[in-house]
C-alpha cells in the first residue's frame, strides 16, 4: 500500500489484526477502509458487533469509541457521527446517540427518519425520557405535518403509559389542543382513534368515546381506515361486556377486508371476545385458523390463547376454573387489575389442584407488579417455581423473578442464581440467551470471550 497508493488492503489487514487479537489495530484499519469506502458502513457495523457488548466501559467498546472520535477530529464527516450513534445504541446510551443524531440533522437536515427510529428503539428499551426528548425534538424541528402528528402520537402514548390518574385530564387537554390545531380529519385519524381509546379505557367516559368514534365514520375514509375505527369501537363494546355488538363490528371487518392483516386481527378479537363470554368452542375454532396467520404476532397470540383453552377445557365439565380465569383476563383488559386479582384469588383457592392454577399464579404475579405490590409478585413466582417444576410457565417464572430482583428491586445477587438456573436447565428456552448475557454481566465476565 505504501508503494502503490491505488492498492488498498485495509480489509485484509483488519482481518489479520483480528485473528492476532490486536483489536485496536483492527478497528483503526477498518475505520481507514470505511473512510475511503463509506458504502460499507452497515457491513462494518455487523463485523464490529462481534467484538462489542452493552458495557460502555468494556475495553473494545472504549477502543472503538476513541478511534471514531480521533477520526472525527481528523475528518469531521457525518459518517463518524452515524457510527458513534450506532455504538451508543449498542451500549443502550440512547441519550448520547440522540446528541449524535442532532449533530447529523443540523448539518444535513434532509430527513428525521433516523431520529424517529431512535425514539422507537429507546421506547422498546424503556428509556422513556430519551424517547420523549427525541419525539419532542421532531415536533419542534419538522416542517412536515404527518411527521409532527406521528411524533405527537408517540409522546401521548408514552405519557399515558407513565401517567397516574391525576395526570389524565392534562393528557386529555393535549389531545383536544391537537385537534384544535390540526382538525378532526383523515390526517389525524390515528390520533383520534387513540383519543377514543383514552376516553374509554383511561377516563372511563365510555359514552363520549363511542360518540366520538362513530362521528369519525362520517369522514371520507377508505376501507382500511373504516376498519381501524370499527376495531376500536368493538374493543370499547367489549369493555362494556356488550359482546354480541362487538362481534358484529369485528365480523364486518373480516368480510370487508378478507385475508388482510387487519381482518386477521379482527378474527383474533372475535376469538378473544368469545373466550371472554365463555364460548370456548367457537373461540378455539377461530384460533385454529389464526395459527397460520401471515402476521407472526397474531399467530403467536392465537397459539397462546388456543393452548390456554385446550389445556384446561376438559378438567371440569362445567369449566368453572377456565371461566374464572377468562373473567380475570377480561377485568385486566378493562383496566381493573385489583378486581382481576380478587377473581384469581378465588380460582387459586377453589381450584389449586387444576393445571390452570399455574397460569393463574403467573397472571396474578404480573398484575401485582403493575400495582407495585412486589412482595406478593415475588411470592407468586416462588410458588409457581416450587409447585410447577415441569410446568409450561416455569422458565417464564424464573426469568420474571430474576428481572424483578435485578431491575425493579435492585437485588442482583438474588437474580444471579435464577439466571444461572435457566442456563443449565432450560437450554431450549426463549430466555436462554438473555439469561446467559445477564448472568455473565452480573458475574463481571468479559462478554467478548
Q: Any low-confidence stretches, pLDDT <50, length ≥5?
A: none
Taken in chain order, the helices and strands follow as HHHHHHHHHHHHHHHHHHHHHHHH
Strand proportion:
under 5%
Average pLDDT metric: 93
Number of helices: 24
Q: Which percent bin holds the helix content? A: over 70%
Description:
The protein has 449 residues and is an all-alpha fold. The chain has 24 helices and no strands. It has helices at 10-20, 23-36, 41-49, 59-74, 78-90, 94-107, 113-124, 128-141, 145-162, 168-182, 189-201, 206-216, 223-239, 243-256, 261-276, 280-290, 296-312, 320-333, 337-350, 356-370, 374-387, 394-408, 412-425, 432-443.
Task: For this entry, give a set of tags.
mainly alpha; 449 residues; 0% strand; globular
How would you briefly describe this protein structure?
By secondary structure, the protein is mainly α. Helices cover about 75% and strands about 0% of the residues.
Fold topology:
Elements (H helix, E strand, L loop, with lengths): L9 H11 L2 H14 L4 H9 L9 H16 L3 H13 L3 H14 L5 H12 L3 H14 L3 H18 L5 H15 L6 H13 L4 H11 L6 H17 L3 H14 L4 H16 L3 H11 L5 H17 L7 H14 L3 H14 L5 H15 L3 H14 L6 H15 L3 H14 L6 H12 L6
Amino acid at each position: 500500500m505504501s508503494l502503490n497508493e491505488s492498492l488498498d488492503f485495509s480489509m485484509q489487514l483488519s482481518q489479520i489484526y483480528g485473528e492476532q487479537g490486536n483489536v485496536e489495530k483492527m478497528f483503526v484499519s477498518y475505520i481507514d477502509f470505511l473512510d475511503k469506502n463509506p458504502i460499507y458502513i452497515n457491513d462494518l457495523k455487523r463485523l464490529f458487533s462481534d467484538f462489542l457488548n452493552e458495557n460502555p466501559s468494556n475495553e473494545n467498546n472504549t477502543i472503538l469509541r476513541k478511534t471514531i472520535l480521533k477520526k472525527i477530529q481528523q475528518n469531521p464527516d457525518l459518517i463518524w457521527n452515524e457510527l458513534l450513534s450506532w455504538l451508543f445504541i449498542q451500549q443502550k446510551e440512547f441519550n448520547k446517540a440522540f446528541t449524535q443524531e442532532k449533530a447529523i440533522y443540523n448539518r444535513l437536515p434532509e430527513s428525521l427518519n433516523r431520529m424517529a427510529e431512535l425514539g422507537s428503539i429507546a421506547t422498546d428499551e424503556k428509556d422513556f425520557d430519551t424517547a420523549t426528548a427525541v419525539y419532542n425534538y421532531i415536533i419542534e424541528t419538522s416542517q412536515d405535518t404527518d411527521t409532527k402528528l406521528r411524533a405527537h402520537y408517540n409522546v401521548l402514548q408514552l405519557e399515558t403509559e407513565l401517567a397516574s390518574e391525576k395526570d389524565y385530564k392534562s393528557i386529555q387537554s393535549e389531545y383536544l389542543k391537537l385537534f384544535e390545531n390540526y382538525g378532526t380529519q383523515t390526517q389525524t385519524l390515528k390520533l383520534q382513534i387513540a383519543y377514543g381509546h383514552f376516553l374509554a379505557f383511561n377516563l372511563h367516559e365510555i359514552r363520549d368515546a363511542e360518540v366520538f368514534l362513530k362521528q369519525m365514520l362520517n369522514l371520507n375514509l377508505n376501507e382500511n381506515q373504516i376498519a381501524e375505527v370499527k376495531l376500536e369501537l368493538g374493543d370499547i363494546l367489549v369493555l362494556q361486556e356488550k359482546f354480541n355488538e362487538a362481534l358484529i363490528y369485528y365480523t364486518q371487518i373480516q368480510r370487508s377486508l378478507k385475508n388482510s392483516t387487519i381482518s386477521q386481527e379482527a378474527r383474533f378479537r372475535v376469538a378473544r371476545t368469545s373466550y371472554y363470554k365463555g364460548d370456548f368452542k367457537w373461540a378455539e375454532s377461530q384460533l385454529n385458523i389464526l395459527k397460520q396467520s401471515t402476521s407472526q404476532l397474531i399467530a403467536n397470540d392465537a397459539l397462546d390463547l388456543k393452548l390456554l383453552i385446550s389445556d384446561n377445557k376438559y378438567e371440569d365439565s362445567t369449566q368453572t376454573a377456565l371461566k374464572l380465569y377468562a373473567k380475570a383476563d377480561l377485568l385486566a383488559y378493562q383496566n381493573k387489575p385489583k378486581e382481576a386479582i380478587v377473581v384469581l384469588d378465588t380460582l387459586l383457592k377453589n381450584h389449586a389442584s387444576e393445571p390452570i392454577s399455574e397460569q393463574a399464579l403467573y397472571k396474578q404475579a404480573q398484575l401485582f407488579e403493575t400495582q407495585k405490590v412486589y412482595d406478593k409478585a415475588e411470592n407468586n413466582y416462588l410458588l409457581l417455581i416450587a409447585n410447577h417444576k415441569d410446568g409450561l410457565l416455569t422458565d417464564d417464572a424464573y426469568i420474571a423473578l430474576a428481572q424483578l430482583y435485578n431491575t425493579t428491586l435492585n437485588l442482583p445477587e438474588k437474580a444471579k442464581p435464577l439466571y444461572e438456573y435457566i442456563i443449565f436447565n432450560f437450554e431450549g428456552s426463549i430466555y436462554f440467551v438473555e439469561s446467559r448475557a445477564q448472568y455473565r454481566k452480573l458475574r463481571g465476565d468479559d462478554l467478548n470471550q
